[in-house]
Predict the 3D structure of the following.
Amino acid sequence: MFMSEIKDLQPAAIWRNFYALTQIPRPSGHLEKIQNFLLDFAKKAGVEATKDVAGNIIMRKPASPGYENRKTVVLQSHMDMVPQKTPESNHNFETDPIETYIKDGWVHAKGTTLGADNGLGVAAIMGVMEDKTLKHGPIEGLITADEETGMFGANDLPEGVLKADILMNLDSETWGKFVIGSAGGVDITATLEYQDAENDQETAVKVTLKGLRGGHSGLEIHEGRANANKEMVRLLHKAIATLGTRLASWHGGNMRNAIPFKAETVLALPKDKVEALKKLVDEQRAIIEDEYKTIEKGVELCAEEVEAPETLVPTEIQDNLVEAIYACHNGVTRMIPSYPDVVETSSNLAIIDIENGKAMIKILARSSREDMKEYVATQLQTCFNMAGMKVSLSGSYGGWDPNPDSEVLNMLMKIYKKQIGKDAIIQVDHAGLECSIILGKYPNLDVVSFGPNIRSPHTAGERCEVATAEPFWKLLTQALEEVPEK
């Protein structure tokens, strides 16, 4: 099936607009095209729209006749998408449209992330803004910039701009669940500059680990998926200890909030040790396959001889880095005691770049408790401090405290039960949502997050279930009609 077919799906208000979004490149950090597209869309739809100092797009639609006294609702999503692709893909996220297809009731992308996170939320906002038949009070649309790389749009959202009483965040990914709380997070970046050592080894081998599932470091961190950086360091530690190999470079992962599915290193060693290294690689691949046999199905760990690099990481620096990476915590720290099925605190060893006299390691730590967020951040900071690295914390955002007595939550629960015939689930998510940041600027907002089914976001396996888009749209539009009076 071909990409144009998603335009013909129902509800047309969502899928037509989502298709339009797939044609506009919008990876995090490269948003000028999508910002201009949204401003042009608003002009054609006849609604007010502005771009603020943070690059967010804010749309405003007046109330339908007779609904002027209803509370104002802000519909919120983010415009950027995570640029992940398969090793075989030649896709350029800054220039190429996303190619989509439909399989077994799910919309997929060809070899890349789909951008349903959070393009479907943006498409829903677009559908509301352009539909003249809907009944509703005053509506604002807040489409934020660069959520995936640090929630920069929400962090820099000016105070006093929004007039809303209710915030409906459309960035949740399980239909039938209303999210009323989420974890906070902080970025930990460890850096080190060093003087390269001259390469005194005879040959070099590139070791590549790929084919792992990767995934969303908030939504899927509890599933026990392999982290390419953590699996690579196990091999390197053995190779250094038993074969005396030397590290020339290491590149693993590319997104702070995605579990890394690929890592590659270049190792230098004597010619007579190459076969022993290849055997060690085969043994480690068998270990990974056995340890993750119910989780990872496509593990590839291979070694190939390459041209010897001119320089290496100095021995002492190499050993300190490898040991710190080995010791670095990754994965779940603990679950929420009162919600034992929900992760409370975790960390993701997301990115490693070591080459040409510079080492950089990025980790995203999350927790729904500020004290535990501080604990895990300090744990990681001290780990890399001991390796002689400079460690900085940035992009910190607080958790979103649940409000089970929310008026808008109770309204949505009633509409859902009437439309679907059963109760929805109320949930607290480990994934970070912009709600907590927006609440920090607008503390009186009544907030709930919901959306259609999206699976494997932040990976090339990202997909959206077609059958959940229509009930999501019906719930959203009915809720706008039933918003209470001021």
